[in-house]
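Late entry, evening session. Most of the bench is empty. Finally got around to the prediction I had been postponing all week. Sequence below, unchanged from the version circulated by S.P.
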Amino acid sequence: MSTEKAGRHQAGQFRKGISGNPNGRPKGARNSATLAAEALLDGEAEALTRKAVQMALEGDTVALRLCIERPVTFALPPITSARDAADISAAGIDAVSNGAINLGEAAEIAKLIDAYVRAYKTAELDDRVAPAERLTTTELHRIAAGHYAEPERRASKLLLLNSR
């Protein structure tokens, strides 16, 4: 097969955006080391759990953490906008006060909320700025010079200009 058909440069490197393995790893394929570890642990879950509990009772803090950690579940309002962050935070505070989650878990949830709000605001800003970025230089000069007679049209164009 020629390098052209394989999507490679003359030097043998793959061209940007072209995979060397277009089919990739099959979906659901698992790492052989993971499969081997699971085979070794198969049937030993009860013994391992007993040992972890024993080590935790003897003061092993890592084993104690393994025994205590659990999935966090509590009612969370639907997330549809950045403004929902206050409601979501309130739900987290309620969960802490009811004992459903601890402060550390609430702090982790707060980080997720913060990341969501930042991503939402970035997407929202991108949506607002995109129309302004499509304006041509001529349109920008016409807006600045006041060539749009209708006040509504001038105002909307100025808003686009100011969001740039």
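Two things to note before I forget:
Residues 74 and 147 are 57 Å apart (CA to CA).
The chain has a mean pLDDT of 77.
Will write this up properly tomorrow.
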